[in-house]
Amino acid sequence: MKLKFTISKTQADLRLDQVLSRWVETCSRSQASDLISRGDVLVSGMTKRPGYRVKFGDVIAALIPEPVENVPPGPESMTLAILFEDDYLLVIDKPPGLVVHPGPGNSCHTLVNGLLDHVPALQHDDWDPLRPGIVHRLDKDTSGLIVVAKTLKSLLFLQKEFKQRRVQKRYLALVEGKDIAPEGEIVLPLGRHPVKRKIMAVNHETGKYARTSWRVRQRYAVACLVDVRLYTGRTHQIRVHFRAKEMPIIGDKVYQYRRNRRNSRKNTLADRQMLHSWRLRFRHPYSGRQMQFEAKTPADFIETLAKLDSSV
Prior knowledge:
The chain is α+β, with helices and mostly antiparallel strands. The protein has helices at 16-23, 29-37, 111-118, 152-163, 237-244, 260-263, 299-311; strands at residues 2-6, 41-43, 46-47, 59-63, 82-85, 89-94, 143-149, 168-176, 183-187, 190-192, 200-202, 211-219, 223-230, 275-283, 290-294. 20% of the residues lie in helices and 27% in strands.
């Protein structure tokens, strides 16, 4: 929905996000702030901060998304790569490109839709209607292991295990750079980007503790294959941490050097970020015994490595 209006004398000196939320009934103050920060709101043709004090005569032009109802997902027949299943949980090898749960722009064809078909009990009212069984998530273009709870007790147990950092999570990442240390650790706090609210950034003021370590497996002419251990589980943690250390993940279209986003050969080697959750170790919610699973490296990842190998 396109919106355009002029600031009146009675509106002058109010915050921009306040004016917008008052003008659009379906837009909360925080939503207004996000729209302004994304650049979807212009003041006389210019971008401003949410706290900008509007002036009499300012022309406000905004692009407001239509409100979307949170309609619970339905079951869909889907082939799932199930590595393990019992009465309490599932371990799935998620392919790249599959969204874990419904959200804006992805109302169907998600992992949750497939789970609802495979485990009808997840359709019961006791579950979160939008994320039934989901213990943790992977980005759409990140492949690999994900554990799903089949009972509410299993869900609570596994969520606590992740929160208490008792789950060992290992990833393979193909990162830019050839002079990378054989191993290392990144401890940088992560939070929402102060302006681009849809993405994450290193934030020393309001960010949360985040820890990542790596070990180089293979070196190539312009990149390194690294084995990553994730100690915390912040949104986009590996992608942001490695970008902050000037070794962004190849194929990542968001957390990349600005000069590389369109023209770099390294960034055109892959159609998605080369990040794969290859090993997961956790305690079973019923027996308490340690379980470990490994997911094979997907074909597109292997193809990208072959391109790099041939370029040495």
